[in-house]
TrEMBL record:
This is F-box domain-containing protein. Residues 15-54 form the F-box domain. It comes from Nelumbo nucifera (Sacred lotus). InterPro entries: AT3G44326-like, F-box-like_dom_sf, F-box_dom. It holds the Pfam family F-box-like.
Amino acid sequence: MSISQVERMESLSNDIFYDILRRLDGATLASAACACAAFHSISKEESIWENVCHSLWPSTNREDVRSLISSIGGFRKFYAGCFPLIVNKDVPVAQLDSCHEYLEEWSDADYYGDMDVFESVSPSDFVSIVDIRYKDKAIYSKVLWGIPDSDGTNGWFYNCPFRIDLLSYSDGNDANEDEIILSVSDGLPPVTSIERERKDGKLWRELRDGIRLSWIIVNKKAKQAANFASWSPLGGQRHWPTDNDFLLHFGSILPAKDILPCRVVECILVMKCKVIHSGEGEDNHTLLKLTELSMQLKDMGGSHLNGRNSLLVLKEALSCRRSKNYTEVLESRHLYSKAQSELKEERMRNESYIDRLCILSGIAALLTFWYCIL
């Protein structure tokens, strides 16, 4: 049977092109749009980008989330804003001095920002869209409307440390409200015993390399969205606090130039997992349970941001630079960690200097006292 060659792209139907393009992921689709006019035209179809978003973020398939995305500009804009990761390399060394002095020289009004600006931000403006994948398989999706326990302008939320514990809040529309469990059928390696895992660390490596987290924050009022997670873990700890527990850190470095004297803060997303069953002998029913998924914001000194400042930082971060290059994300994190270490060393030197000064002052006072007596 002979197969006739296609000499011109125009001889193919747009329906065929559409069927091809709708099967691509977002990055490949964006590249294909630059190939020819036909691909460029079809790639503007909102339905294609809706399919891309549903494949990458299953939580966007909910009716209320689809309406939200349509109201802020559509799925194409949503993907363009949320697929690249937040990158902030504006961590100048000069800011370390001001960060070191803010406790002494900054008043409460300065530290907590301009109240007129704050009044334009409301906890109900933000929506969290969270998805977890393990080895390209969606294992958990959740949508959180607003920020929990933030009622009342003068309530405790605005003055207490900001924290969102995602697993503590239920939503009747969520498909996965039950316990989040990973097993061998999901791709976990069988663990015959915790003692064996402590030696070879196979389960830890598979979990660290296979888990992916997306935590998208949407500002309904500003019609902006961004992914505050780093997809892959930025760090972690085995056996925390017991041999059965694993701790994974995700996150990003966020700008806070006109909000805090340190000018940058760290968004920390914590995921904790616990081995609740390990196989013995021929039993390979290894089970891993997700026990915590939370968001916190910390300044360079390690202090938790309160709710008031956190809302301002989240709002500003939605306009932050983004990049699809994961190396830039790691570089941004490295710059922040380096500046943070320098600040810690500077504080330790100052504290050591003060301690020595106090000791010398005490010795001088003692000698003066004995001199007066004698």
